[in-house]
Design goal:
This protein has 187 residues and is mainly α. The chain has one domain (2-181). 84% of the residues lie in helices and 0% in strands. The protein has seven helices and no strands.
């Protein structure tokens, strides 16, 4: 169970590193928002998947990877765009990925795989309550750690812009990896 939770939390961890890089400095409120939402969505998605079960599995599994890719590509592209914009602090505050729709988009994108896990557990007739709690807590902790790592990496003023570029590239790479894992490229 723990290995499954860790595997599911790796996307949240990578995105949290990218968010930490983007923000450069994080406060307790930002850390709470991102870790709470990532943990909550990671816990809710398997439950939703479990309830949906086999009935819609074929329908959703045909395009879930495209949804995750699109969301990650959007946020990653936005990070790349912002990396080359002016360093106006007021603009940075308006582009906080731990707020508004960016937070929801990132939460959904990092938890799509957990939906599939819920489907699988439903098919196997496995109870979902305890696994969902473990998955959510693990994602929450990995998100906190990832944000701290990201902010430490971005703390250097010289590396800050390139760290944000790296964060955007990481999100895009995760999206491409999701597509590759679903055989989109035929490799």
């Amino acid at each position: 169970m723990i290995s499954l939770a860790v595997a599911l939390a790796m996307d949240a961890f990578a995105v949290a590193v990218a968010v930490g890089i983007s923000l450069k400095k994080v406060n307790a409120r930002q850390m709470f928002r991102l870790s709470w939402h990532f943990g909550l969505f990671q816990a809710m998605m398997p439950v939703i998947g479990w309830f949906l079960g086999v009935k819609v599995r074929a329908f959703v599994s045909a395009f879930d990877h495209w949804i995750a890719f699109g969301l990650l590509a959007f946020v990653g592209g936005k990070m790349l765009w912002e990396a080359f914009q002016s360093d106006d602090e007021d603009a940075d505050a308006a582009h906080d990925p731990t707020r508004r729709m960016s937070l929801v988009v990132l939460s959904v994108a990092t938890s799509i795989d957990a939906l599939a896990v819920g489907f699988s557990m439903s098919v196997l007739d496995v109870s979902i309550a305890f696994p969902a709690i473990i998955i959510g807590i693990t994602a929450c902790l990995f998100t906190l750690i990832g944000m701290q790592i990201g902010t430490r990496f971005a703390s250097s003023a010289r590396l800050s812009r390139w760290a944000e570029v790296l964060g955007g590239v990481v999100l895009l790479t995760i999206g491409v990896h999701i597509l590759q894992g679903h055989g989109v490229f035929g490799l």
